[in-house]
Automatic annotation (TrEMBL):
<dbReference type="Pfam" id="PF03061">
    <property type="entry name" value="4HBT"/>
</dbReference>
<feature type="domain" description="Thioesterase">
    <location>
        <begin position="19"/>
        <end position="94"/>
    </location>
</feature>
<dbReference type="InterPro" id="IPR050563">
    <property type="entry name" value="4-hydroxybenzoyl-CoA_TE"/>
</dbReference>
<dbReference type="InterPro" id="IPR006684">
    <property type="entry name" value="YbgC/YbaW"/>
</dbReference>
<dbReference type="InterPro" id="IPR006683">
    <property type="entry name" value="Thioestr_dom"/>
</dbReference>
<protein>
    <submittedName>
        <fullName>Acyl-CoA thioester hydrolase YbgC</fullName>
    </submittedName>
</protein>
<dbReference type="InterPro" id="IPR008272">
    <property type="entry name" value="HB-CoA_thioesterase_AS"/>
</dbReference>
<keyword id="KW-0378">Hydrolase</keyword>
<dbReference type="InterPro" id="IPR029069">
    <property type="entry name" value="HotDog_dom_sf"/>
</dbReference>
<dbReference type="GO" id="GO:0047617">
    <property type="term" value="F:fatty acyl-CoA hydrolase activity"/>
</dbReference>
<comment type="similarity">
    <text>Belongs to the 4-hydroxybenzoyl-CoA thioesterase family.</text>
</comment>
C-alpha cells in the first residue's frame, strides 16, 4: 500500500468563502473524491460494491490543515490505503497544490506540491442492514483486490 493514487481537481467558486478561501469542511469532500477514485482505479467502484450489498461507512476522520487552498487553484488529492483488515480499512490523504508538471490519474511513490491538508479516514465493512461484514468471507474477490493494491 505504498503507492499513492492521484486525482486532480480545480477549486470551484462554490467551495470558497467570501475571501476566496476553500472552506475547511470541503476538505472532507476532497478526501471522499480521492477515496472513491482510488476505489474505482483499484477496480471496485462504489456502485459495484453497493450492488454486492456492501457499505463502507466512515468510523473516524482526522484532518490536519497546513495552508489554505483558494478559488481556481489546481489541486491534487493523493490517496492510499495505509491499513486494512478483514473488517476495517484506513485511507490516508494529502491535498496539495498541483505542480506544473503533474498529471492526473497516475500512481505516485511520493506526493509532490505544496501541502495544504493531510488526514485519514477509518471505515468498517457492513452489509445493507448495517451488520459488520468480514470482507474475506462476504466478497473474497474484493479482499483479494485490496491484498494486491
Amino acid at each position: 500500500m505504498k503507492a499513492w493514487h492521484k486525482e486532480v481537481i480545480r477549486v470551484h467558486y462554490k467551495d470558497t468563502d467570501q475571501m476566496g478561501v476553500v472552506h475547511h469542511g470541503n476538505y472532507v469532500n476532497l478526501f471522499e473524491i480521492g477515496r472513491t477514485e482510488w476505489m474505482r482505479h483499484a477496480g471496485i467502484p462504489y456502485s459495484k460494491m453497493e450492488d454486492m450489498g456492501l457499505l463502507l461507512p466512515v468510523m473516524d476522520l482526522n484532518i490536519n490543515y497546513q495552508k489554505s487552498a483558494r478559488y481556481d487553484d489546481l489541486l491534487v488529492i493523493y490517496t492510499k490505503v495505509s491499513n486494512f483488515s478483514k473488517v476495517r480499512l484506513q485511507f490516508d490523504y494529502e491535498t496539495r497544490l498541483i505542480p506544473n508538471n503533474d498529471s492526473p490519474g497516475e500512481i505516485a511513490d511520493t506526493p509532490t506540491g505544496e501541502l495544504l491538508a493531510k488526514g485519514s479516514t477509518v471505515h468498517m465493512w457492513v452489509t445493507r442492514d448495517w451488520k459488520p461484514a468480514r470482507i474475506d468471507r462476504f466478497a473474497p474477490e474484493v479482499y483479494a483486490l485490496f491484498q494486491e493494491a
